[in-house]
Amino acid sequence: MDSILAQLRTLASQADSASRYKILDGLRALQLQLETPHDTLSRLSGLPLSTAALSETTKAAPLVLSRILRYLASIGMIQEVARDSFAANTITETLAQSGYEGGVRHFFGNVGPVLQAFPDFLSETKYQDVSNATHSAFQKAFPTDLPAFVWLPTQPERFAPLQQVMTVQGASGMPWFSVFPFEKELGNFTGSHAFVDVGGGFGHQSLALLKAFPALHGKIVLEDLPQTFEQLPFRLDGIEPKPHNFFEPQPVKGARFYYLRNILHDWPDDKCVAILQQLITASGPDSQILIDEMVLPDSGVSWEATTIDLTLMASFGSRERTTAQWNALLDTAGLKVLRIDTYQARRQDSIIQAIAK
Ligand SMILES: C[S@@+](CC[C@H](N)C(=O)[O-])C[C@H]1O[C@@H](n2cnc3c(N)ncnc32)[C@H](O)[C@@H]1O
């Protein structure tokens, strides 16, 4: 047994990204196969304790603290170096970075209550497809009738972690513009705005694009809600920040690219059509709309994609979409799909290039 584990460790240390995920998937499948129902419950029920308790470290009673640390060590989140002596490991160090720390706060504080309310919501709605931004498990979990993305921005302590985690979502893979032929499609465009990052959060995609194509300096616009810019943790050199609600008329006309990453998966179809129609209205003859989203196959969808899909259903009454669902939605909005480039096969992260019909 030990030698199998040692071999796996050697393999993992030499693996490239695709093989690393293959090993991770294999181990995950094996873990699920080996777990008893009790193991599964323990794994799930223990986790929510960690964030709240850790946030109080300075005031915690030693006994309480040592039990929590013992638990964290037992699941590999920290290292137990001697009796009552613990040290950070690489997981702890990763989770201490702001994007991942935001992830812990967001997934436990924002997503957790929604997923807990989800079974009751499904039961009350008799397991029917509701697809309604104002009627999802989110409104059961929190004291609001508003869509999640209208209420959350009014709650800074919830909204900041959400924006932080977006900066690291999918950050480890290949960048989209290394597969989508960005430079060729930009061509000799001479307009003042080459790229509008619609709902771009803290601007991590704009920054990565500018780093790869420095000639875009001054030609990128980052749009998001005003509350996002109030939380912005860094300066955006060469990128114009523009507070804007994407349900209202698009202020930047005739840009070459209007780019939406993980925007449409947050909204049911009717709202997506409303967002896209604002972009079509602002488009010039050279404009393109780039949709950066998962494009799911009809079967064999990965666990990461299905997990996010159910979280979207619970939180926003929305979904990840298959190729057929994207084609139908974009057709209804008045768009023609030119090409779809998948840049991360594992989650089917793809760029859908579309123009007005
Ligand atoms: C899932 S995040 C995606 C952020 C970023 N595009 C990315 O891929 O990391 C959705 C983004 O949409 C923004 N958003 C939500 N409703 C909006 C609205 N009505 N107008 C503009 N931005 C909005 C949120 O603030 C958030 O930054």
Describe this structure in words.
With about 350 residues, this protein is α/β, with parallel strands linked by helices. The protein folds into 3 domains: about 35-95, Arc Repressor Mutant, subunit A (Orthogonal Bundle); about 100-170, no CATH class; about 175-355, Vaccinia Virus protein VP39 (Rossmann fold), CATH 3.40.50. The protein has helices at about 1-15, 15-35, 35-45, 50-55, 60-75, 90-95, 100-125, 135-140, 150, 155-165, 180-185, 205-210, 225-230, 270-280, 305-315, 325-335; strands spanning about 80, 85, 195, 220-225, 240-245, 255-260, 290-295, 320, 335-345, 350-355. The strands form 2 sheets. Strands 3, 4, 5, 6, 7, 8, 9 and 10 form an 8-stranded mixed beta sheet that branches. The chain has a two-stranded antiparallel sheet with strand order 1-2. The termini are far apart. Residues about 50-55 have low confidence and may be disordered. S-adenosylmethionine binds next to α10. S-adenosylmethionine binds near residues 163, 201 and 266.
Mean pLDDT, nearest integer? 90
Helical content (DSSP H or I, runs of 4+) = 40-55%
The helix/strand series, from N terminus to C terminus, equals: HHHHHEEHHHHHHEHEHEEHEHEHEE
Poorly predicted residue ranges: 49-55
CA distance, first residue to last residue: 60 Å
Q: What overall form do the CA principal axes indicate? A: globular
Estimated structural class: alpha/beta
Percentage of residues in strands: 15-25%
The number of E-state strands comes to 10
- In CATH, the architecture of the largest domain is 3-Layer(aba) Sandwich
Q: Supply the number of structural domains.
A: 3
Radius of gyration: 22 Å
Number of helices: 16
CATH class assignment of the largest domain: Alpha Beta
What ligand species are in this complex?
S-adenosylmethionine
Largest sheet, in brief, is: 8 strands, mixed
CATH topology of the largest domain: Rossmann fold
How would you classify the quaternary structure? single chain
| CATH H-tier superfamily of the largest domain | Vaccinia Virus protein VP39
Protein name: O-methyltransferase C-terminal domain-containing protein
InterPro entries: COMT-like, COMT_C, SAM-dependent_MTases_sf, WH-like_DNA-bd_sf, WH_DNA-bd_sf
GO molecular function: O-methyltransferase activity
Active site: 265 (proton acceptor)
